[in-house]
Amino acid sequence: MGEKQEDANLILRLYEIRRDEAMRRARVWFLMDFNPENIQDIMQALFGEHSADFRMVASYWDMAATFVNYGAIDEQMFNDINTEHVGIYAKLQPFLAELRALPGAPPYLYLKNLEPLIQRMPDAEERIAAMRRYMKRRNEASTGAATS
């Protein structure tokens, strides 16, 4: 099997993990319902009922980024196939310095491996901004639908 096929197989295996029911629920919560405005919102998630969801999603994407950073998965292929990791980063990026400062914070909490992967994207700032706009519109549409 060629190198690109091996990369594709690893990406498919990562996708299979995302399909796990607990992971799917955690991802929906993180992407749809978790909208941190400050570090306190993150701390509330970490120590509240969604602690496992937060940790599952953050550690999953940091792990996936680690595979890319170490060359186990082709970076361009990974970034061309996935967008969710940009959304995870876009939500937490404003608070990463504060998360890093927490005593004993595990590296996945401040996206130790995901951050450099995102920052290496040639269009990183635009992708992050576009993802934030998309999530904001989606959240507004969801909120509007819920109140109608």
Structural features, described:
The protein has helices at residues 3-18, 21-33, 39-47, 51-69, 75-81, 84-92, 96-100, 114-119, 124-147. The chain is an all-alpha fold and 148 residues long. The chain has one domain (3-147). Helix 3 crosses helix 4. It is globular and about 50 Å long.
Give the SSE map.
Layout lengths: L2 H16 L2 H13 L5 H9 L3 H19 L5 H7 L2 H9 L3 H5 L13 H6 L4 H24 L1
Helix pairs in contact: 2-4, 3-4, 6-9
The succession of helices and strands, N to C, reads: HHHHHHHHH
Q: What helical percentage do the residues reach? A: over 70%
Average predicted confidence as pLDDT? 93
**Parts with pLDDT < 50 across at least 5 consecutive residues:** none
What percentage of amino acids are in beta strands? under 5%
Rg result: 16 Å
Tally of alpha and pi helices: 9
Structural class: mainly alpha
Q: How many strands in all? A: 0
The figure for the number of domains is 1
- Give the biggest beta sheet: none
End-to-end gap: 53 Å
3D shape: globular
List descriptors.
148 residues, mainly alpha, globular
Short overview:
This protein has nine helices and no strands.
